[in-house]
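Journal club prep — side note

Before the paper discussion, L.F. wants everyone to see what a predicted structure for a comparable chain looks like in token form. Sequence:
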Amino acid sequence: MSINNLFTSLLYFGRQCTKPFAVARCYASVAANSVDKDNIKPKTGILMLNMGGPTNTDQVYEYLLRIMTDRDMIQLPVQSKLGPWIAKRRTPEVQKKYSEIGGGSPILQWTNKQGELLCKKLDKISPETAPHKYYVAFRYADPLTEDTLERIHNDGVQHTVLFSQYPQYSCSTSGSSFNAIYNYYKTRESPNGMKWSIIDRWATHPLLVKTFVERIKEELAQFSSEKRDDVIILFSAHSLPLQVVNRGDSYPAEVGATVALVMQELNYCNPYSLVWQSKVGPTSWLGPFTDEALKGYVKQGKKNFILVPIAFVNEHIETLHELDIEYCRELAEELGIETIRRAAAPNDHPIFIDALTDIVVSRLRSKQSVNPKFLIRCPHCVNLSCDASKKWYAEICKN
């Protein structure tokens, strides 16, 4: 399926997901294709790190295979054998889900759009570090991290900013992307003369908070004045296995910090709760789970909800399918929910683009090229590659 057809399908899907019992926000927009500025020699490169997603169903197996064999993301016994088996077994089910949201993930198109808008603003606000060029480095789908690092090298970038697109840091997500960069250079010489800066987390940035506030206000306005104050705001974030949490991963605390600031900005206008989604496998994960929370509140007589994807910066399978289809449509019908809406991800909201710009400019103008927190491991870390990776980053960020 072509990119244009993909977004046409997503837009059609968005119009179809309104039902009397559940009014879900299935947000999609035609994001611009990547603009290749190869004719411009960039002074500063902004490397946007994320998990990525398959742009069509044919890429699903390779995408799952990379996830299931990445020990930073998930740890399995005899992973070299079990990982490929799980990926193959899950492929048809996941392909079906991508088919239901238009044939593939829109995450690359959104990231391209965000990168373009970011660099346009950076060129105006920070001419001393211009021209700026964004690069997309996905962990499990094209463009892969190693391919993008080669492009940066070939472009002769003078200063590279490694910018995690996960606002809240987790070793399983941001950590895996940063380790992938270390592993790439472990067998190669680091680019001579290149300056490095790292943006590893930005969960409490005021403009990120403001973006979520605006997204929530958009949805609250759709409720009648009689019901609006009773709407429960459920902030939904990707869960983590409890063994990862207990190692000292900072992600749950950082997600909680974002939620607290959003509600403070909203003057605590509504009841709210932080819930967790996307549990996989039989092990214990951080809860309460989003679907179980909805069931619990319905039992308590609650009928109106807004779901807020608090840890995602753009639409993808977990917003467009898990939240919109599985919860806002199917589960809402099963539970008899009166109204449930889903706040859009930040996507290309102007305030969010301002947030990205301010975060990068602040790092470019700072004397500190890396957050000291990034350079320490979790208190109970068992990943030896993290130790080597942290030491490597401490060294290259001295330049």
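L.F.'s comment for the group: The chain is about 45% helix and 15% strand. Keep this in mind when we get to the figures.
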